[in-house]
Protein 1
Amino acid sequence: MEDRYDVVWPLGRTRVEEVAANERPLDLAGKTIGFIWDYLFKGPEMFEMIKTKLSAEFPGVRYVDYEVFGNIHGSDAEEKASLSALPERLREHGVDAVVLAVGA
Amino acid sequence: MPAVMRASAVVEKAGVPSVAIGATGFDAMGRAIGRALGIRHVPIVVYPGVILTDTSETFREKVRDFVAPGVARALTERIDGGPAESAQQEPGPRDVVVSGSLDDIQAAFIERQWSDGLPIMPPTIERVERFLQWTDREPGEVIGLLLPERREATVWNVAVNGAMAGCRPEYMPVLLAIAGCLADPKFRIEDAGSTPGWEPLAVLSGPLVEELNFNSGTGALRVGRQANTSIGRFVRLYMRNVAGLRIPPGSTDQGAIASGFNVVLAENEPATSEIEWPTYRSDRGYRDDQSVISLQSVVSTSAPIYTGGDRAEDHLETITSLLVNAMGPWAYTGVSHQAWHPLLVMGPSVARALAGFGLGKDDIRQYLYENAKISAKEMERYAWQVGSTSFNLAERVREGLIPPDYALSEDPGRLVRMIPKAEWIGIVVAGNPGRNQSRAFVNNHSQGASVTRAIELPSAWRALRAQAGGRS
């Protein structure tokens, strides 16, 4: 007779704090878009092309460039400083929506 | 991708909608991280393909045709918040999740991605409780939250995974110290699924090396000794199950090629003491009557470093040369992140020879710090190829992020230091005492930075050891 085993779960409970989804602007005309970069994979070139597309579709759309927000993937100190300053920078510049790149 | 999602969570918490961009294959990783950070609603626009192997023209076409329209859509579309997944659906620690034969258990654990692919010891409640006898800590104690899945690391699930990995119950204090290292924010487990594919290496220093029968001699990093091997396996299994770092069909471990788990490296204390060098734990600020475990990432290993000669320099020049080869231009990441923890595992005979020339560990560190160099051009070119497309030494000096000596001239062929600080170099004596070999291990900058925990023994350690007949 083969031994039988009753075994327990090897994982741990997840602790997720849900963040409420923010309303997306249905029209970007006159809105301010922030670009946040991890300093990888040609982000600035990508951002410029996204700006061209958005400006063509939405008159009066404005931009806040990545330099304002700092590197979100640098040294521990750089990353911490950039992330902790983000909410204030977003408020300061009246940012309505953000584009983050480049994950790979 | 993890950094992008972490920043996205900060933006969303600040009340601003966001959209993330990731290349093919990383969108699934981004979604998994997004779920754990509570921002599963954040849209991810995919760049189809691999950015750096696309020509500049193809890159521009793909951004124009896919990424830019995708961003425009994602910024203006209503999103589906959807119902949150309930944590209550997850089993409790003592709930039986599978019942069956040994084969049934193996099959179920593999199917549910709870196994590393090797057979596991079935984690029955009785087996787990045998591990818990070897700690004074409560089973429900939360050691920390491990990203990317943001799961609780607990004393209980340390015991479960230790049992599964084939550890002996008396290894429990070591396993708990390792879990403490994994949960240390300085270790950055949230980046353990990054593409370099780094693997933790646990270094054990102290009386437990002998007491628990670790191998610190010939084949120190070979599988084959239960203590070194099963605890090494535990590290990866725990990262897989509790942090949630899984290769496909999972999505959170994107190590491009990566490597298998490392067995525990145990310090050869007699060889270290004989030459009156400080122990590894003493280097890290601990007392010699303590046993400590350190965890650090390893992303590459040197060729075997055989050294000999009549002068200290004969050894040091060769060690430097092979260390430089092992680090290569990847060292730019250490300069960029200002974090770098190369580890030199030195054979006992080499350590004895260098001590005979009057050198201590600090002298060796200083030599390596001063002499491990690479051309600025090679560093910058490689940085671009990795993806750090804006990395430039002179600019980083101008911004005050790195010391001025990285840009003393504009000559691209100028040699620059690969190791930002001498004190960041670890040195451990271990390996075959009958040979003159050392080996260098390169870490992944701030990801998997070296962290250390003292191993806390239970108050009944001696009695439990006596009961077990002192065997290990």
Protein 2
Amino acid sequence: MTQYIAKRLLGLLPTLLLVGLLVFLFVHILPGDPARLAAGPDANPATVELVRKDLGLDRPLPQQFVRFVNGVLHWDFGRSIRTKRPVSSEIGDRFMPTFWLTMWSMVWSVLIGMTIGILSAVWRNRWPDRLGMTLAVSGISFPAFALGMVLMQFFSVQLNWLPTVGDDTWRHYILPSITLGAAVAAIMARFTRSSFVDILGEDFIRTARAKGLDERRVVVKHGLRNALIPVVTMMGLQFGFLLGGSIVVEKVFNWPGLGRLLVDAVDMRDYPVIQALVLLFSLEFILINLIVDVLYGLINPTIRYR
Amino acid sequence: MGDEPLAALPTAQPLITDERVRTPWSEFWRKFKRQRVAMVAGAFVIVLVVLAIVAPWIVPFDAETFFDYDQLNARPSARHWFGVDALGRDIYSRILMGARISLAAGFLSVTVGAIIGTLLGLIAGYREGWWDRVIMRVCDVLFAFPGILLAIGIVAILGGGMANVIVAVAVFSIPTFARLVRGNTLALKHLTFIEAARSLGATDRTIVFRHIFPGTIAAVIVYFSLRIGTSIITAASLSFLGMGAQPPTPEWGAMLDAARSDMLTAPHEAIFPALAIFVTVLAFNLLGDGLRDALDPKIERR
């Protein structure tokens, strides 16, 4: 197992390096002079030159890349053009709200999605299935920002049950996490259903039924574990979706998280922040996929020691 | 959202039952006809495309330059079917014109992504070796960015605007198609009919385009339809974030963003664009589901 994880970690290195290279080049393929951008619009040529030297932009590209990688390894992403604070502390302030929002969305959407998926598979082509799948296809068709606006209008403005914006109490988490998780719940439901339908048609399920197990045991003990394998993979892929979706949802609910930081940074052309955030988001995504692969090995013994 | 994996479909196996010859096309139509929901969705998509094409000639008011200052934020009425927005523009006209933008964005970006992705997938799957490694590594890197993040990154480089949004969405469609087609190509290339073609002296190009490509096309069509829904949502999301279509362009996502400040007094300004996106994407998703059920040979359950 340890060997497997180590092998997977090593295999990630080329991808990480390529992602790093892309993010590094990002500043250089932008139209305009990065030193000029960092110095600000009113800087005179002398200041621009000073900034260029200060940021090391006058050195050859490979040297700059080494410097960049070194900085990243020491958690140094430079300073935000907008606030002049170190990018690492900008991100540090915003990390937790986004992290918890994503986690809560994941937890509830997986639970609800899998429940709907299993119920739909068990009662295939009957009304629970039709209802569940109608909900699911609607869920993937309704854009998150529109759902957020509707939920906020209804529960916060009209009924006044929940707060509108901010992240102060747990009540603030309810609407944003529902908004963010809805599409994922829908995808999980559809995927769980199709995975479960396949499993329920297998011979070992017939055997389990034939030996007289009651239906609940057949579904939970024999079906669930096998159906879980593709579902776990799907879960990992959906994390990326949540990370991306949080950008939109955070704008709707004015959430003080990384997504809003990114949107503001793109608006203000705050390149060091964009660079760091893109790197962070993709790193998170890669790590989650690794964790999923390991989990996959735990659930499915046949691929464990490869 | 292409979630269920799709198997490669070997085409061209004419079986003579009854008197009628069953071609892959008639087989598809026979199965697709039974999917009532998908048929309705398909018809709706066609209507939508026609509406989008003729929109400039049928809108009652100009979507960008007509201002009815007496009826700011007015509710729906006989004169303004979907009401009036905060600047006095007719929402019905703007939704119709917005259909052009959203459908064009969806179709163009997925078409570009599908063509490039399919070609890359065919090359990677057929050549294997270095080609495969390089192409799949690039796909891994593209996959390492969550979709919308990649799009935001590209928009940050190229600048805002709908054209750049289309490029951005196309780029993140590429790896999906490349992986799908590569997998199917790998499965197909060792089959006997490919071997037969090769032994007859067919060139690589003939084998790839005449024999392997038709076998992957069913899967590509299904992903194409499902992908359009995702792309329309992504493009609208970028406009909602202020990175896509700029005012006064009647893009649905941008309209929703503009409606946020007036949610309390004029909720209809948000409801109609939201419904427009929902119904359009829903139609594409239902159509895609129906196509999958009709084209996937594994699904012959009913």
Protein 3
Amino acid sequence: MKLRHQTAIAALAMLAVGQSFAQAALPGAPGGPPVDLERGQGPGKIVVPERPKPVARPTGNQQVAVLSISLSYERGEVTAAKVTSSKRISSFAPKVFARQGGDWQVVINGEIERAFYVSNPGLREAEAHPSSRDRYEWVGETSVIDWPLVIPLYADGRSLGARSITIVDVATKQVILETAI
Amino acid sequence: MIRPAIGILICFFLFAGAACKLTRTVSADDAPASGATVFEVFAPKSDLDGAFNVLFVPDASYGDMTVVANRQRFVNDAIGIIENGYWQNRAYFNGLFLYNYYYMTATGSVTARPLDADGNFQCPTVTWPAAVNTDGAFADQIILVHANELRDCGGGGRATAEPTSFRTMVHETGHGLFGLPDEYCCDGGYFAKSPVMYTSSADCTGDAANAAWRNCGSHTSSRNGSVWWRSQANITTNLIMSNAGNEVWESGPADWAVMDQAYRSLSGAPVVTPPAAFAPAQWSYVVPTP
């Protein structure tokens, strides 16, 4: 693994409640890759706790539904989908609502409707590799995939009152699966 | 509650500069952060709803994870991934205190498969520990770190990688956390996502959201012949969602627009300083030696 090693000049200002970075970079070595000459923008004010904070635990309505979905694929095309297990557990939710795009959309139906994107689990991105002339490739599965799907049951501190989900292909609008949770 | 072993972010002066380095000493007395199998590597946010949570899962090559020395070896690899992976991309580094990193003591495995009957590559068989769906259900990106060398596949917020495949992990996190589309030609995961990717020239040239960097250009998917338009088509090298190689490339301005929106969606709506370097330029964070 080649790591980048470039000379940097920076200044660190320690504040009572945090730190500010102010950094400036020198150009890279002759023949090397270009470097950011405006490194002085820095990451801004940051706070470094002296010790790790106690770990918060999920409480109240902080729950998720964990589904195991069996998906049958033929060359990356889903041909069948069914839920093989579903349970609700006390847990913080993954930040799926922050995800800005994807092949499919999971619509949570309930008192508050929310939706989030997921990638199609039957299309998997293979690393760039000498065997692919150092290019990425997408591999369409021909198999049955057990797909774990974690669904938030709360958002913005409130229970969604979720009753079911609908998984929709964003491009074709085809419904992949609709199930109670 | 027992306080977990102390993780220290050491920032110290290096000549006229400053640098940060993570250290964590694993202890048998460490309390789990979730369930019985998830422990902290570096978790600056105690509110897990206010952070992106990345979970590293070891393969069995790390040995019995009840043995402190084995845990320490895995944690050291995880720290290497943070410092030499995520922190080498400015769009991640600038938000470094919005990321919690954890490790799991339950192990999984990644096994290469032979070519199929037509000679095509098949993605490896991945066995995830059951605990990822309970103790690790909160994680936004899960990475199974394995020692055996093979060609990995990613998707759906889960990826597998050797401990030094830094670019792979950051690239896959771009999909898993932020929902960024691929930008390489021509066998990629493409979907319309303003201000990165569009299905028509008109959509690309007419989107005010990409006006600051607009260079619309198209490519055709080799998979199905669909045509896609990128707003940062002038960036053809050194782009994390596009280019291969060993380097952890930077994000482009279009990627940043998506990432910025995702950061602001966290509880408390945090604002992260925009990167001063976008691809194809580089910003290299020099991780100091202890």
